[in-house]
Amino acid sequence: MERRLREAAPPFDAVFTVAAGDAIRLAAEGAVRYETVVAVGGDGTISEVANGILSAGAEAALGVIPRGTGSDLVRTLGIPTSVEAAASLLASGVRRRIDVGSATYSGTHGDRASRWFVNATEVGAGAMVAAAMNRASRRLPGAPAFWWAILTTMLRYRPSQASIVTDGSPPLELLLSNAWIANGCYSGGGIRSAPRAAVDDGLLDVVAVEHGPVRRRLLGLLKLRSGAFVEMPEVRYGKAARVEVTAETPLPIEIDGDAVGTTPAVFEAVPSRLTVVASGAP
């Protein structure tokens, strides 16, 4: 791949990760030395690289060579999936400022943790799906793996009574199946989970799904990929700059495809915070 990239992309230095979190450190170091830091991978790698750039406080742009399982952010940004086309875009693509999200939540050891997100975060069943996708023992690739994880999670997930407060409004109280707090339109390998989202409107899209009977959940699955599920009566769809989520029993959270902790959590939009190399205006 490096040989192919050297033929199509501008000159670059290559570094490799060996463990989770490495891309944050490497991107932070690169962001103060280079004009562009490129993530070669999926949404998790892209998220780590973005966190590195943002934590460095640098003006380096984020570029992407998609190589991951989901690669959902690139769908919103219009970045091609082939190596050569994505590499050529790094030389000729438009630089855009996009929003990011800031998440504060309960970490895996019960401590308060925080992280930026570029595409989306989920509270509830979707976080269990993300954890299943990231297990080294999984056998299926790509989209089939997502759907298998979704179906098995439906059987294992136990909902909790949750409260969602957006921009200080009265709380939405519901038995929560899943909630997306989204900057981008897609998640789960091409699911249109937040079809009205825009990465440059200064707001997060909040899509909350109330837990219901199995029959209704299966109907929702049939409408999930197209985004038509958001019209179902079990779904509340809105936009907000700040979202607070609490639950009677802590619910799992995933950020850009990585399971990170549990509620309580606060999510905030940070407008025009990150420069990306994309295909042009949306």
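^ that was protein a. below is b, sequence first then the tokens
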Amino acid sequence: MNMKAHGQSFASRGLSALITSGISLALCLGQAGKEPKESKPTILFVCEHGAAKSVIAAAYFDKLAKQRNLNYKAAFRGVNPDAELNAAAAKGLKEDGIDIAGWKPALVAKKDVDDASRVVTLGCTLPPGISKASKVTDWNNVPSPSQDYEYARDNIKKRVQELVDDLAREKESAEGKKR
């Protein structure tokens, strides 16, 4: 009986060690190849309602930056956000072949501005208490997408293209200095 008790004790200790080893191995293997993801610098677009102009700018920025192989992402916010995207902007972007599923206006926060590499306001003023650093640019006189989507889109797209071109030049200049 003593040997049986000793045998059970040994077996349960062995099983315990085996389980612990298995868990440790699984944790190690689970971490293999999971390097910390580099977060892309963000370009933040802000308009009054976060539902049209900033949405179009963010959509085209992501598209054009990807085409130029730039490591940036766009975000859009509103000073007084609507509950949902502007119907004209949503319809136009879908017709342009841009997937905006799940996109929803959100209130701009101090953290959004602080975390962004650059901030572009589209004819609105950032709320009090949100720092206005030199990284903030205002695009005034952007036409309303509700009145004429194509005209507004083309105006925004032209400005976004200029921004992407500037970022590409900065990237090339930085790469040239590294060599």
